[in-house]
Amino acid sequence: MKQALWKAYNSFSRKERRGILFLLLLTGISMIMPALWERFISVPTAMYTTDSVLCADVAALRHALLSSRRVFPGNVDSGVRLRRFTFDPNTSNTGEWEALGLEKRVINNIQRYLAKGGRFRRKEDLQRIYGLSSQLYNELMPYVRIAGQQNKPDTFRRYAGYVPREPDDGARRKAYNNRLPVLDINTADSALWESLPGIGPVLAARIVKFREKLGGFYSISQVGETYGLADSTFNKIQASLRLPKVSLKKIDLNHIDEKSLAQHPYIRYKLARLIVLYRNNHGPFRQPEDLLGIPLVDDSIYRKIEHYIKTENSPL
Length: 316
Prior knowledge:
The structure is a single chain. This protein is an all-alpha fold. Among the domains are: 77 residues, Orthogonal Bundle (DNA polymerase, domain 1); 72 residues, DNA polymerase, domain 1 (Orthogonal Bundle); 60 residues, DNA polymerase, domain 1 (Orthogonal Bundle). The protein is built from 14 helices and four strands. The strands form two sheets. Strands 1-2 form a two-stranded parallel sheet. Strands 3-4 form a two-stranded parallel ribbon. The radius of gyration is 44 Å and the shape is flat.
């Protein structure tokens, strides 16, 4: 048997025999490594912590967290019996703040704020204090009483989840509009337009330029056609716009060249060319309604430009 194995071993080349020996050596090392690891390398005992010890650590951590926060009323672990009572944030002392559940760093922030001349004028001013959690803020709001401020009878219900009915949109819009300036859309300059909400220097200049190119506004709704003026902004300022008098600059269809005619925002180049061709082929316009004879001009287009055109039958 040994001779057969030896014969088989010698049947491999020298290089192959070395490879076999190397693989056998690696296999042996892999087999004994676990035993050597357990014998010569120590394992921290924390890896074998029992469930009971782990639960104790978690409980200790939870205790530390709760003790540091001191948010919940009646938390005996915090060392202070937390209570709820009415208080004035402008006059409360450290002991009262602690009893209400505030941390020392938050109390220090309040005291520094008051020392620098600050004052709580409304209940909502408590939100300015850095470090005061929203949860504790909501808990304390029903108990805030600021000297000199009349408390509404529904204050507690408001912070207990009751929300009184707000004024309807019409009433709010009316009150808001009463505070806006009023201007004449045909005479207001850029500075007056800028006084309206949502109108900056660029939009104000565009409105004035659009008005000049048109020859004046005959309707307040035309302001909303200004390039870049959003519908929401126009709706916001519409109540401030007035048109006490309409005075428009009109174009004489029989005495204007194509280039000048094309400058009008409601006509532009294509229609201006057709108007001049029609005039050249049919003679001077007898009345503004003659524009309806041009195929491109329908009733809707004519209704827009009729305010800005006139005809004089004197020859060119």
